[in-house]
Amino acid sequence: MNTHSSPELRRHVAHVSHGAVMLMIGAQSALQDIDGGAKAGQWLLVLGQTRYLITICCQARGLEFGAEPYVAEDGGALDPHTHVPPDIWIAGHHLLKEASEFSRTAPDAERAQFWLAQIHAWVSEIESTLRLPDPLPELRSPEGMFGAIRLVRAWTELTDRLGLPPLLPTDWTRPL
Amino acid sequence: MSPSAATPSSSATLDARLQAHLASHRLTRNDVIAQVDTSFGQPLLTVATGSVLAGFGNPGSDLDIYSVVPGAVAAALPLTAYVNAALIEVVLHGAEPITNRHRELVSGQWPPADIAPGAIASARLILDSLSRFALGLPLTGTQEWLSWQRKLAGDMPGRIAGWHAVEAVRKRVSARVFAPSKPIVAALRIGEALCAALERHAALHGEWYFKPKWLGEKLRRLDDHSALDAYRLAMCPPVIPSDVPAYLDKTGELLDHFLADVFCSGWRIKVTPAIGTQGHLFDETYLMSRWGLRTVAVPADGPACANPVWTYGIEDQWHDDVADLFIEDVLWMGVEKP
Is ipTM over 0.90? Predict the structure, then answer.
């Protein structure tokens, strides 16, 4: 990992920790749905999850520049757009527009593969801005859950000390 | 409009969906039931549920197992198991809390008489859990709990439709507040409002599986082409701000259409500081910060400083300072019906 300087400690910690959790909990499952939906020809699922993927990834990317880390309850004012570099936003929405076309007319296998590769690359580019030493663990895999818990545990002491919001969704830590 | 054709799929259909999923992973029902942890007591009810049972599953789908157990459950964290490469997620619910939640849902109203931050996420979670029980296929259960599960199916569709009506109105108000200064966010928000209106439309026509990602597939199953066109519009907001006004108009017309029979009489918009905010007087300005990450300054002699809770009618214009704080996401908005 190379040296990197940030103008503000809280913002840096919020970006890395909350950004990583948004990608592990939100983006990874959306990508799995997109892959599974594309294979199964469920292009309306792919469209819905592409929109969600782009929204949560932009929220994560915007964390470095002023976006809000707390998305557990949508109070009506979430803003995944304002703080995101325009090239990321525009590239994401081009992919979304293509997903909408696919929901009308399913693409051939080659075009679907090309689009899937692009969307994976778009997410990877966002993950790379967290500057983590290793790729994020896959939350929904036999070994990934523990890797994710290890990361969250390691970050929690500092996020708590800085008064940042909890990293895990509160509905996971509260019985129904 | 009250829910029509709101009967969940027949148990024969649910059974066939479960069998097909299990067969593709060389699993038996007993393999699935064995995943339910008995640390909180022997389950009183166990249902297979989720996308597979709703008929939307694909080879990558997990199988959700929801159980009611006698003891108090420590957390709602899904317990994940991998059997023959199949992902099975088990969620346990304590008998007493889930009974109370159900009772509150049936006897309460939405929008509630009084709302505060936290209430929306909590209510969403309860609808999600109860509807999954309602739409599930019982695998084991006592007579009492099997009968509870059957009753749920009748209680849920109307509540789910009502939930989406409130969300559609709430998101539409948000879009209106964002429109002058952050048009792209306004477009995103009105798309969310239209999705909520379409969710309501689907629920009223018998598709009330409470999972946003399946909205398009639910509308396809209803063979509702005009709703599908509306869905695609809601999904794809303009990228250029100059395209937003036309988008807001078109989406607004669709909202008028899909919400024509929603009566908002007596509904109030409540706006209040969001979770994590702090206010500070700073000479002639009032500063609101959230998590210490950013600060919004408004005049100290304005309404923000004096009383940081505001209520408005659905169509009311907000005070400029309140709108400015809201679009910076330091205020939270809910709908209530006092």
Answer: yes
